[in-house]
Design a protein that fits this description.
The protein has two domains: about 70 residues, no CATH class; about 50 residues, Beta Barrel (OB fold (Dihydrolipoamide Acetyltransferase, E2P)), CATH 2.40.50.140. Helix 1 runs antiparallel to helix 2 and helix 2 runs antiparallel to helix 3. By secondary structure, it is an alpha+beta fold. The radius of gyration is 30 Å and the shape is rod-shaped.
Length: about 140
């Protein structure tokens, strides 16, 4: 069996495994094996085949890492699952804070701003330490 068949079979196996992982790094190695197979097909020495595969693999990995960093996205979801939940205010205090019932317990809460109207039903818009930050219910 000629050497280029071995390279191309290795490339096909790498593509198959890549389809199961979805990382694209094995695809880079498959392209490198294909390049080595092409070099072998045209009669290049074995060390030239290996060098060609190594150059393509290193360059492909470098460009794949750069592309992933450039196109990386962060999820826009809030880590605070309390935001958007409704609460019932039990008591308004003179300092503007409140005591609310939420998740079967009593919590300290503050208004989002000084102009936020005090209501019996409010919505959580954030947290400050262990205090809930309250805003008006959406209309």
């Amino acid at each position: 069996m000629t050497m280029y068949y071995v390279w191309w079979i290795a490339a096909a196996i790498l593509v198959g495994v890549e389809m199961m992982t979805g990382t694209f790094y094995l695809l880079v190695l498959a392209v490198a094996a294909t390049v080595a197979g092409c070099l072998a097909f045209f009669g290049a020495a074995f060390w030239v085949q290996v060098a060609g595969a190594a150059i393509v693999a290193v360059a492909g990995t470098f460009f794949l890492n750069a592309w992933k960093k450039k196109n990386a996205t962060t999820p826009k979801l809030s880590a605070n699952l309390d935001v958007g939940q409704r609460v019932r205010v039990n008591e308004w205090r003179d300092d503007g804070s409140a005591r609310v019932s939420y998740r079967g317990s009593q919590w300290d809460a503050v208004l989002e701003s000084e102009v936020t109207p005090r209501r019996e039903q409010m919505v959580i818009v954030g947290t400050r330490g262990s205090q809930l930050v309250l805003g008006p219910l959406p209309q």
